[in-house]
Structures are given as C-alpha cells and as structure tokens.
Amino acid sequence: MSVLTLAAAQTASIAGDLPANLARHQRLMQLAAAQGVQLLVFPELSLTGYEPQLAAELALMPDAPQLQPLRDLARALELTAVVGMPIRLSVDGPVLIGALVLGGDGSLAVYTKQHLHAGEESAFVAGRGGAPLPIGGETVALAVCADFCHASHVQAAADAGAGIYAAGVLISEGGYAADSAQLQGYAQEHGMLVLMANHGGPSGGWACAGRSAAWDARGRLMGAVEGVGEALLIVRGGTGEWQAQVLEVSH
C-alpha cells in the first residue's frame, strides 16, 4: 500500500504583510517536508490575511516574481503547497480569491473561489474553481471557505472521483460548530477524507477559531488542533485507513 502524507497548515497571518507571511509559509513548508508531507494546504488568503479592503492593492498574478521563492522551495522540497492569495488573472482583471497550487515538480496551477461569502462581492469576483489534484495515487479536490457551504460543490468533487476534499478556510468562533459539522457530514455522505485548514489568529476583524481538523471517510474526527496558534495537522495513510497527528509550531 502506498502511503500518502498530507497536512493542514494552521497559520496566524500578519495583515497585508506579504514578506513576513512568505517567511512563515516557508518555515511551515520546511517543517512539513521534514515530516514527509507531500501536500500542504494553507488557509484562505493565507499570504495576506483575510483583508478584503487591502485585496486590490495586494493582488498579484499567479506567476508574480514575489511568489517565486515559495515556488522554488516547493520544488526543492518536492512538496506541493496550496497557498491563499488575492490574485488577478490579467493585469487589469478583477480580483479573485485564489488558492495557488505550487507543485513539488515546479508546476503552477490556480484554483479560484467559486462561491463568495456575503459582502465579499465588494472586493472580489467569483471564480471558476480548478481541476482536482493527483497526489500520491489519490485525487484531491480543493475548496476555499464558502465553497463548501454549497452541497453541489462537494458533489462535483465526488463526481470527479476525489477521495480527499481539502478546504482552506476562515472560520470564526461563532461559525465553527456549524461549519465543522457540515464538513464532517460531507465526509460521511461521500466517503471521502475531509481536511480543513483554518486561520490560527485574528484576521480581517474576525476572531478565527483555529482548530484545523480532519475527518475520515466514515465521518470520524481523526484529529484537530486544540485551539488557535500555528500548527501542522498531519494525516498519513491511504486506501481508507488514515492516522492524524498535530505538530505545534513555536515562534
């Protein structure tokens, strides 16, 4: 049996500070690679924080030179990282909520958030999603936050043959109980592993809940970060049998 190792990176982003957040992402990527992680998923807008009012000035093209060091590191580590960033697909194009897939083989793919949360339309336009990722013999479907609030999104992932549904999110304390229950239900309904990477500190005026989590294909909670702060939730396994561990990250 081939073993796949994937992880949710729970980060505490610094509002609008791309260089500082890039450095944090690099550190977490290195820590994950040391644990054998092949796919590392970061929260929604992890590289800038969830800051809609800053999105237009912070937005980059997916292949922007500012992001090249992160792409180079992913390739050097042979680790695929999914990082959150406000993006434009053309120089004068609208701003989208992007999840950039920095391949361990040097490739670059783009997922754009399909379903905006109420109020986000003032800063962003809805995107078109992206193709599932083949990782270690598994098919991984991506989601960004409000995407998973639409059952049709998860159904499309299942129809595409995904055995893993990986969501980068911003979930507040007030929304955590309902949102985590919804993700758990999807795991059980569709028989897929569900991985959720949440912010581990305040962002955009929200008190984020942390508690990044993973549920197995029977809907059982395999593991979760205890609270806020930075951590890696690492999941290992394959063919339906998975184990999770939490690696706390100190500054």
UniProtKB/TrEMBL annotation:
Keywords: Hydrolase. Residues 4-251 form the CN hydrolase domain. InterPro entries: Aliph_Amidase/BUP, C-N_Hydrolase, C-N_Hydrolase_sf. Coiled coil: none annotated. One of its GO terms (molecular function) is hydrolase activity. This is Carbon-nitrogen hydrolase family protein. It comes from Pseudomonas protegens.
